[in-house]
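User: As part of a screening pipeline, I want to sanity-check one entry by hand. Below is the sequence and the SMILES for magnesium ion. Please return the complex as C-alpha cells so I can compare it with the automated output.
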Amino acid sequence: MPLQCLKTFHFRNLQDVNIELNSGLQIVYGDNASGKTSLLDAMHLLCSGKSFVGASPRKLLQFNHDSFSINGEIKYKNNLREKLQFRWEDSRIHLMVNHQAMQRSSDYAAIQPVRAITPLSYKLLDDSPDIRRRFIDWGVFHVKHDYIEIWRKFQRALAQRNAMLVAGTDARTLIAWSQEYVQLSLLVDQYRAEYIDEFRQKLKILTELFLPDDSVTINYQRGWNEDGDLDTILNDSFRRDTERHFTYYGPQRAELSIRMNQKIAKDVASRGQKKLITFALYLTQARIQQNIGHQDGLLLIDDLPSELDAEHQRMVMDLLKNLPTQVVLSCIDLKQMEIAEGMAKKLFHVKQGHVKEVVQ
Ligand SMILES: Nc1ncnc2c1ncn2[C@@H]1O[C@H](COP(=O)(O)OP(=O)(O)OP(=O)(O)O)[C@@H](O)[C@H]1O
Ligand SMILES: [Mg+2]
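Assistant: Here is the complex for your manual check:
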C-alpha cells in the first residue's frame, strides 16, 4: 500500500485534513465544490510534486494564507517507509523526504508513482505530441531505473547542440560534437520503443474490452526516419538546423499516434470514445507499472461517474479489482457508485472542505 496517511495545511478549501488510507480502493464522495478534486490533487502533489489541476502552487494556497503544506507517509513493496512533504513557503516549493530537502524535482517524483485520470485526461489524445512523449517517458521512468539519467543527459546534449546552432558553430565542429547527442538519442529511442512494444500488447486487451466494435492502435514514431541513420540525417539537415536555431530530428520529435479504425482518434472518436481510449491508456500504464515497477502505484480517478456510463464503470471496476494498485476515486453521490461501494476498503465524505472517514 503506497500512501498510508495524508495531512494538509491551508491547501485550497480543505480544512486541515488528517486521514489514514488503506490498500485497494477508496471512495471519496461529496457535493459539488466540497473539496474532492482538492483532496485528490493534494495526494498528487505530495507524490509527484505537481498538481493535476495544472495550477501553479501559488493558486493552491488557501485564501488569506501565505504557505501550505501536504504531508504523508508511503510504504514500499519491501515495507520500508518514507515521509514525504510538499511545502509552498516563501514563494517557492520545498520538497522533503524524511525531513531532508530534495534538490531535483525529478528525483522526488521518482519515489512514488502516481497517475490521475480526470475530466481533462482526454487531452492526451487532443493535445500536441509533447503530452504523449511525457506519457511514454513517465511509463519508462517508473519501470527502468536508469532511464532518468539517460533522459537528463539527452536533454543536456540537446540544449548544448541547440546553443551551438544559435552561436553559428561551423559544420565540422558541430558534427564532431554531435556524436554524444546521437548516442543518447538512440538510447532514449531504444527504451521508449521497448516500453511501447509491451504497452501495445496490453493495450489491445483493454481496447477490445472497452470498444469491441472499433479497432484502436498505437504507432510510435521515433523522431527521425525509421530507416535512416541519425548521423547522416543530422549532417544533411545542418543548414536548415542552423537557420532554425534548433535541432529538428531526434527523440524530441517523437510521436505516439493513437488511431481508431485507422484514423487519428483525435479527429474521429466521439467524446465518449475518447474517454474510453484514455482510460484504456492509463490503466494499461498502471498495469505495466504494477508488474515491473519497484514500487506499487497510486491511481487517482476524479469524478468517475461523469466520465463513464454504468456499463463501462463496471468494466473499469472489474479491472481495478484485479489490479493491486491503490486507487482513490471520487464521485458526487455514492448511489452513482453502487458497483464500487461493496469493493471499497474505505469511504471518505467531503463536506465544505472537511474530510471524514465513514465507517461502513
Ligand atoms: N485556493 C483556494 N482556496 C480556497 N478555496 C479554493 C481555492 N481554490 C478553489 N477553492 C474552492 O474550493 C472548493 C472545492 O473545489 P474542488 O474543485 O475541490 O471541489 P469538488 O468537490 O471537486 O467539486 P466538483 O464536484 O464540482 O468537481 C470550491 O468552492 C473552490 O472554489
Ligand atoms: Mg471536482
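Points to compare against the pipeline: The domain at 1-113+296-360 is CATH 3.40.50.300 (Rossmann fold). The mean pLDDT is 94.
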